[in-house]
Amino acid sequence: MSLRHALLALLTVEPMTGYDLSKAFQASVSHVWHAPDSQIYPELRRMEADGLVVGTEVPWGPRGKKREYSVTAAGLDAFRAWMNEPLSYTRERDPAHLKAAYLEWAEPDAARAQLRAHIANFDQQRTEWLEKVREIDTGTSTMLEKRLAHAPASEHTSIRAYKRYTYEGLIARAEHEIEWAERGLDLIDDLLQADAAPPTA
């Protein structure tokens, strides 16, 4: 996946200015593809140069103007082609699990602190994603409702279902990481107790 595909996905909903697109990105796509504004705006300019989007000056305030981007037919074709291609998976880089493989080098309290931070991180993410599921179920997701408003009624069920399916996967991943870190905390205690036990005759 590339940043441009994430931006094209958002622009299939409606035309947006760079500012509005950045806000929509942070509220939705950023859960699965992180990118700061410093990457979004240059990518929009490259996409316009490649004919995937077209930018139009629109009024902003009493005298100002903003550039509003719309996806072109070529952009829709590129997005559809990407959606139909199988993913090319890359080898993972996971510092948390790399460090876990060598925790015997860490002080027990430091190891516990790292695992508790891991739990806190994924617990926060799980809370955010559970809220996204609630918004989908209650019809209070702003971006989703905009997408539904521009989509045929016959597609509404599948649009909602795929969005929910995505967040369910993220929730399951977070819960797995929390459970893994909790087992790590138990493992530290078990190993310390084993080391402290008197040798058997």
From TrEMBL:
InterPro entries, sorted: Tscrpt_reg_PadR_C, Tscrpt_reg_PadR_N, WH-like_DNA-bd_sf, WH_DNA-bd_sf
Alphabetical list of Pfam families matching this protein: PadR, Vir_act_alpha_C
Signal peptide: none
Gene3D superfamilies named among the record's database cross-references: Winged helix-like DNA-binding domain superfamily/Winged helix DNA-binding domain (1.10.10.10)
Transcription regulator PadR N-terminal domain ranges (all copies): 7-79
Domain Transcription regulator PadR C-terminal: 93-188
Name by which UniProt lists this protein: PadR family transcriptional regulator
Organism of this sequence: Cryobacterium melibiosiphilum
Taxonomic classification: Bacteria, Bacillati, Actinomycetota, Actinomycetes, Micrococcales
